Amino acid sequence: MDLINFTIKEAHERLKKKEFSSKELASAYLKQIKKIDKDINAYLSVAEESAMAQAEFADEKISSGNFSELTGIPCAIKDAILVEGQICTAASKILENYIAPYDATVIKKLKEQGSVILGKTNTDEFTMGASTENSAFGVVKNPYDKNRVAGGSSGGSAAAVAALEACFSLGSDTGGSIRLPASFCGIAGLNPTYGSVSRYGLIAHASSLDQIGPMAKNIEDIKIVFKAICGKDPMDATSADYNFENSDVGLKGLKIGVPKEYFTEGLDKEVKKIIEDSIKKAEEQGAEIKEISLPNTKYSTACYYIIVPSEASSNLARFDGIKYGFSDQSPKSLLDVYSKSRGKGFGSEPKRRIMLGAHSLSSGYYDAYYRRAQEVRQLVKQDFINAFAKVDLIFCPVAPFPAFNIGEKADDPLSMYLVDIYTAGVKLAGLPALSMPAGTLRQAQGENLPVGLQIIGNHFQENKILSVASFIEKMV
Amino acid sequence: MISKDEVKHIAKLARLELTEKETIKMQKDLSAILDYFNLLKKAPQSKNFKENFYRGASSLRKDESKKSGLADKLLAATPEKKDDYIKVKSIF
C-alpha cells in the first residue's frame, strides 16, 4: 500500500511500529505533490527542505518514545496562516513576497507535536470567495473533475487532502470556507465554534466570524487535529478556555433537526436525495427526526455580506504599502502611495469588499446597512437558539449543488455570494458545523461528484457533532 | 443604483485607486449587490437589540508593554526603510 493512502491514525500506528519512518512518509507526499500538483494547483509553495528537517526531528522524537499521534504526520497549511520564515501570500499580489515573521498559534501547536509542514495551500485572495477563482495565482482544480472548482476559499487545503498531497490540512472558515471545499472534494472539514481555536497568525478577513479548522480524510483524524489546535491563547482575546474531549454520543434517541428552509427550491434534486438518505439512515439507527424552522434564513446571506465586507474593509486597511507587502513608490505624496499600492496590489474581490464595507459603514448609510445587518444577525442567532432548545444537532446540505464548473460564476459576484446560503447563517451565530462525505452524485456525462452532509451543533459541542459523524461515516 | 461619482467618492475614502474600467464594473457590481441588500428591509425588527453584543470584548489584558522579540523581522518586512526607521513619503 502506498504510504500516502494512510489516515493520521493508520500512519501513526505504523510509525510507532517502525514500519516506515517519518522521512519516508514525508518523501512519499512530496513525490505525490511533484507528480500531480501542476494539474491541481493546490499548493502555492512547497517547503521541501524544512519539511524533511521536521521529519527528521519527528523520527528522533519517535525513537525517544516521547511522541503523539501527530508526530511525523505531513500536513498542508492554508496560505493565510503564518508559518515562520515561509512566504505567506493570502493568494494576493500585495503579499506576493511577504515572509511570515512568526508562527501562528496553531502552527506552534502542530510543531510542538512534531507534525511535518509540507507547504502552503491556495485560497481565494484574502480567503474571499467560494471557488478559489479569486486567487491571484490561479484556480484550484477539483481532483474529481478538473474542469470544476474545488470550492473555496480553503480549496487548496481540501484538494491537497483529496488528491493525497497531504495527510491533513488546516483551513479557515468565515462563511463556509472549510465546509464548502470539503463537500466539493469529498473530505471532512470542521468549522469549529467561534473562539475555540486561536486566530493569532491568521490573516484577518472578518474578525467576528473567522475560525481556523481541520480538514482530513475521515472523522477520527478531524478529532485528532482539532484536539491539538483548540484552546485558550493569550494572543487571541476571543479564544475560549476549551478543551475538546472525545465522547460517545450515539444515534439512539438523538434529536436531529432538519430545517425546512434549507430544502426549498434552489437545492439540486440529487443533492437533496443524498442528504435525505443520510437522514433516513440516522433515523433507522434510532435517531428522532424533527422538522424545524429557521425563519430568518432568507436574510442570512444579505446580512453576512454587509457584516463581512464592513469588517474586511477595516482589516485590509493595514495593507497600505508602508508596513509590508507590495508598495508603489512612484508617487510623490504619502496619500498616493496608499491608493496606488492598494489599487495595484489588491485583486477585484478584496476591492469590491473594501468598497462595500466602506459604503455600509459610511455616514448616512450606516443605519440602513451595517446597523440593520447587526440587528438581523441577532434574529438569525435567535433562530438557532430556538432550534437547539428542541434538538441536539441539525442535519442539512452544505451547498445547494455539487462542485460547479470553473468560470461558471466567476463574473457574477452576487451569484458567487449565494453559494454560501447554507453555511453563512451558522457563522453569524458562531456555531460549530462539520461537512462530511455523504455520497456521490452520478452524472450522465463526466465524473461523479462528491456531496457533503452538514452537521451543525450548539456552541462548543464539537464532541456531539464528531461522535455522531463517526457513526454516520460507517453507514454512508 | 449607485452613481459613478459615489463609487469614486467611496474609493477615495478607502484609499483605493481604481482605473476607469474598474470604476464602471464596480458601479455595476455594487448596484446589484446593494439592491440585494434591500431584502433586509423586510426582516422583522429585533427585540432587545444591543449594538455591542460581542461576547469577548471584556477579556482585555493589562496595558503593559513587553518584548515580542520580533522588531527586526517586522522592520525587515517594510518596503522602504532607513537604518531602524520606516521611511514614508512626505504628507503634503
Description:
The complex is a heterodimer of chains A (476) and B (92). By secondary structure, chain A is α/β, with parallel strands linked by helices. Chain A contains 15 helices and 13 strands. In chain A, the strands form 2 sheets. An 11-stranded mixed beta sheet of chain A has the order 1-3-2-6-8-7-12-13-11-9-10, with helices on both faces. In chain A, helix 8 links the parallel strand 9 and strand 10 (288-292). In chain A, helix 7 (219-229) runs antiparallel to helix 15 (462-475) and helix 9 (297-315) crosses helix 11 (348-361). The relative contact order of chain A is 0.13. Chain B has 92 residues and is mostly helical. Chain B has helices spanning 4-13, 20-37, 71-76; strands spanning 81-82, 85-86. In chain B, strands 1-2 form a two-stranded antiparallel ribbon. The two termini of chain B are 35 Å apart.
SSE topology:
The complex is a heterodimer of chains A (476) and B (92).
Chain A: H1 8-16, H2 22-40, E1 43-46, H3 48-64, E2 74-78, H4 105-113, E3 116-121, E4 141-142, E5 145-149, H5 155-162, E6 168-173, H6 179-185, E7 188-191, E8 211-216, H7 219-229, E9 255-259, H8 269-284, E10 288-292, H9 297-315, H10 334-345, H11 348-361, H12 367-388, E11 393-397, H13 413-417, H14 424-428, E12 433-441, E13 449-457, H15 462-475
Helix pairs in contact in A: 2-3, 5-6, 7-15, 9-11, 9-12
Chain B: H1 4-13, H2 20-37, H3 71-76, E1 81-82, E2 85-86
Antiparallel strand pairs in B: 1-2
Give a short overview:
Chain A is 39% helix and 15% strand. Chain A is α/β, with parallel strands linked by helices. In chain A, the strands form 2 sheets. An 11-stranded mixed β-sheet of chain A has the order 1-3-2-6-8-7-12-13-11-9-10, with helices on both faces.
| N→C terminal distance of chain A | 24 Å
Structural class from helices and strands of chain B? mainly alpha
Q: Report the sheet-strand fraction of chain B.
A: under 5%
- How can the largest sheet of chain B be summarized? 2 strands, antiparallel
Q: What's the gyration radius of chain A in Å?
A: 21 Å
The structure class of chain A reads: alpha/beta
Q: Give a quick account of the main beta sheet of chain A: strands, pairing sense, barrel closure.
A: 11 strands, mixed
Helix/strand order of chain A, N-terminal first: HHEHEHEEEHEHEEHEHEHHHHEHHEEH
Mean pLDDT of chain B: 88
| Approximate helicity band of chain A | 25-40%
Q: Can you tell me the overall shape of chain A?
A: globular
Query: Helix share of residues of chain B?
Result: 25-40%
Count of alpha and pi helical runs of chain B: 3
Number of strands of chain B: 2
Per DSSP E runs of 2 or more residues, the count of β-strands of chain A stands at: 13
Task: Give the uncertain stretches of chain B in residue-range form.
Answer: none
